[in-house]
Design a protein that fits this description.
The protein is α+β, with helices and mostly antiparallel strands. Helices cover 58% and strands 19% of the residues. Strands 1-2-3 form a three-stranded mixed β-sheet.
């Protein structure tokens, strides 16, 4: 039962942060960010938020910028979600999409050789 609750909270956090970035962020860089996943710790004190971006900036620069805005996002998140404690947010660039694209390219290359 507890894992279902954590999963539901993680999903709610992901959706709420997506809305905050799209609707309430003034920084145009934050509007280019797409939240791909959120994982909340069992004690709800910490959340790791995975994201990608269409910006031309490097992954490190984007990660730095969004982590600097984490306190703003956390404050808005507290207003949106009815949680006793709003988790601390740590944003991590999600490389899974790039990895999947690379694997797909390798598979296509192998099939083209046949």
């Amino acid at each position: 039962m507890a894992s279902y609750k954590i999963s539901k909270i993680s999903s709610d956090v992901r959706e709420a942060i997506s809305e905050i970035l799209f609707e309430e962020a003034r920084d145009e860089l934050l509007k280019t960010i797409t939240i791909t996943d959120a994982r909340v710790s069992k004690d709800l004190s910490y959340a790791k938020i995975y994201f990608t971006s269409l910006s031309n900036l490097s992954k490190e620069e984007i990660t730095k910028e969004i982590n600097e805005a984490a306190s703003f996002i956390r404050g808005k998140l507290a207003q949106k979600l009815n949680l006793r404690h709003t988790p601390d947010l740590n944003f991590v660039y999600d490389t899974s999409i790039e990895y999947a694209s690379k694997i797909e390219g390798i598979i296509k290359e192998i099939h083209d050789k046949d």
